[in-house]
Specification:
Length: 356
């Protein structure tokens, strides 16, 4: 595993290894979506990752999609996240915050009755969202007006500023998995016309505006972006995902980001294809791969130059000391899906580490 354990220059920072922790929604935030001591313990346990990418965090108020997810839009939330960043830095780690807007994946029962917004008035079909009243179907969103979009960009910019105040090392813009920026990007959910619909350039306009605003706060060398061209999660589809990924890879070079974080597959296997090869061929910066990589496959991908690092999700969830286990070729703890989103420490901070 020589390559996985080599240093990587990641924009403004250097990581000691290329085993990153993917953003994982865990729904352990307290009231008012405030990060807490339990979350600080969880992230500090995993500080041996080359980079920790914290979970999807609400950039602006009124856009909850998971009930107990954290936010970064209030002073109290900034203070809560400072507990996390201080704990991670004390443990020797580096941590970026993933800033996010749920779009049509939000629900009125989670947001004071407010109707969710999206690129177009198309609801998520075939799934339900967990609310305080139990699981409920997703509702019809309303299409954002063009004159409302600058407010979305400003909200992401403020979230980036708040992440700085909270002590993060950088931010990752969440452009994946069927949330607002992805809803504009893919043509299955964006059927609008005008400046933000139709062509690839128009559908990507909001994403690029958010990335530019975030870079204006942090500098581009402390900003990453996550995309998922194939993933059908949240009822997503695009008519040409390979073409979309290829085009995006080339266009993103002008931002000189710290990294591009690419989800290579579809959670549900509905959409197939190789997005890694064309993205690697067209993107000139640091490329992080994600979704189902074994340590051996990750090592081979880094050795071949296909990827620069790999982000592990459930592997890190169940193994706080994942890099040490990979290096020692030790058995891995198995994750318990029943506790992925439940409150408290069970299945969160109680996974065992290797004993010497």
């Amino acid at each position: 595993m020589t390559n996985l354990f080599s240093e990587l220059r990641l924009g403004a920072i250097t990581t000691p290894n290329r085993i990153f922790m993917a953003p994982l929604t865990r729904c352990r935030a307290g009231g008012e979506h405030i990060a807490n001591d339990l979350m600080a313990e969880y992230y500090a346990q995993r500080a041996s990752a080359g980079l920790l990418i914290a979970e999807a965090t609400m950039a602006m108020a009124g856009n909850s999609a998971f009930w107990m997810e954290p936010g970064i839009h209030s002073p109290a939330q900034v203070t809560g996240w400072k507990l996390v960043t201080d704990a991670v830095h004390t443990a020797g780690g580096r941590i970026f915050l993933q800033i996010w807007h749920g779009g049509r994946a939000c629900h009125p029962l989670l947001n004071g009755g407010a109707q969710p917004v999206s690129a177009s008035a198309i609801a998520i079909a075939g799934d339900e969202v967990l609310t305080p009243e139990g699981k409920r179907p997703y509702v019809m969103p309303r299409a954002l007006r063009d004159d409302e979009i600058p407010g979305i960009v400003a909200g992401f910019r403020q979230a980036a500023e708040n992440a700085q105040a909270a002590g993060f090392d950088g931010v990752e813009v969440h452009g994946a998995n069927g949330y607002l920026l992805d809803q504009f990007l893919r043509d299955g959910s964006n059927q609008r016309d005008g400046a933000y619909g139709g062509s690839l350039e128009n559908r990507a306009r909001l994403l690029f505006e958010v990335v530019a605003a975030t870079c204006a706060v942090w500098g581009s060398d402390r900003v990453g972006l996550r995309i998922s061209p194939l993933n059908s999660y949240n009822d997503m589809i695009d008519s040409d995902p390979i073409g979309l990924a290829t085009w995006l890879a080339g266009e993103l070079n002008r931002f000189d980001l710290a990294y591009l974080h690419l989800m290579r597959a579809d959670f549900f296997g509905k959409q197939q294809g190789d997005v890694v090869t064309p993205v690697r061929a067209n993107y000139k910066g640091v490329l992080i791969g994600n979704m189902g990589y074994t340590p051996e496959e990750a090592e081979a991908a880094v050795a071949a130059g296909t990827l620069d690092a790999v982000a592990f999700g459930t592997g890190f969830l169940a193994n706080p000391d994942l890099p040490a286990r990979i290096k020692a070729k030790a058995p891995l703890n198995q994750a318990n899906p029943a506790t992925f989103y439940t409150p408290g420490p069970e299945g969160y901070t109680d996974y065992p580490v290797l004993t010497k």
